[in-house]
Amino acid sequence: MRVVFAGTPEFARVALERLHAAGFEIPLVLTQPDRPAGRGMKLQASPVKQFALEHGMTVVQPHSLRLDGKYPEDAAAARAAIEAAHADVMVVAAYGLILPQWVLDSFQLGCLNIHASLLPRWRGAAPIHRAIEAGDAETGVTIMQMDAGLDTGDMLLVERLPIAADDSTGSLHDTLATLGGRLIVEALELAACGGFKPAKQPAEGVTYAHKIEKQEAIIDWAQPAVVIERRIRAFNPFPGASTSWQGEAIKLWQGQVGDAAPASSQPPGTVLAADASGIVVQCGQGVLRLTELQRAGGKRLPVTDFLRGYALPVGAVLGA
Fold this sequence. Notes:
The protein has 320 residues and is of the alpha/beta class. It has helices at 10-21, 47-54, 72-85, 101-104, 127-134, 169-192, 225-234, 303-308; strands at residues 2-7, 25-30, 35-37, 42-44, 59-60, 89-93, 111-115, 123-124, 138-145, 155-162, 208-209, 241-245, 248-257, 271-275, 278-282, 287-295, 301-302. Helix 1 (10-21) runs parallel beside helix 2, helix 1 (10-21) runs parallel beside helix 6 (169-192) and helix 5 (127-134) packs antiparallel against helix 7 (225-234). The N and C termini lie far apart (59 Å). The mean pLDDT is 95.
C-alpha cells in the first residue's frame, strides 16, 4: 500500500514514524512551510519534515491546497506531486491546512484522519487542551474517513483512554500520539483487506475545540480552584497559564486544589501562605496551592527554589 502523509507537529511525526516502521511505502509527505522559532526566530522545519528528510522521503510544503485560493501555484504543485505519487490513501494528522474536495477525491481509499478525541466530542483544532480544561474523565483517538466537513466524517476505529488527575496537555499529547500511531497502522491493515466498518458519528454530543489563544491563559482568580487547576494543566506546555504581581508576569505550571477550608474574606488572588509546601492562593471558591512556577525570562522551578529568588509576601494579590 502506498501512503501520502500530511502532518506537521510532533503528534504527526509519531504517526509517520510508526507507518514507516510498519513498512508502508510513503512516496510523498506534505507538511506546513518552515516557520520562525526560538530566540533567534530562525526558520525551523516541522518535526514531520525533519523525520521525512532523514528517511529520504519527498517533502512538499504548500501554503495552501486551494487551486482557486491565495496560493494557486503551491496548490497546483502539490496536486502534481500527489498525482505522481500514485498512492492508495492519504493519512492526515494535525496537518493544519484544509483539504479541498480535489484532495479527498484523489485516493482510492480516501483520506484517513488521526483525531485526538472521542468524536463527535471536541471536533476542531485543540481537542487535548479542551478535554482537560473541561474536566473530561476520558478521551481517546478516532480514526476517521475525512469528508468536506470539520471532523464530521465516518468513524473507522476508536480507542478510549482515561484522563489521569495529574495529566497535562503535554503528557496526554504524548500518550495519544503513541495510540494514534498504533491505530493508524491497524486501520491501514484493515483497509488492505476490506475490513472496515464505517460508523456515522452520533448527532448528539457535538462540541468544538476552538484554537487556543494566548490571552486565554491569563488566570481569573475569581473562578473556582478546581477550574483554575484544570486550566493550568490544559495550558501546559502551551501557552502556559499565567498571572502577575507588581507588573511582572508569572507562569503557573502545577497546582493542587487545597483541602476544604473556612470561607475567607480575602479577595480572589490573595496569597494566603507561601512556603516550601506551596503558594496558597484564594480563589473564587476554594484555594489553590501552586507548586511549580516560572518568572519572566527564568526557568520552571519547584516552589521551594522559586521562593528563594522571589519574595512573594502573604497578602499579595495576584493578577490585580
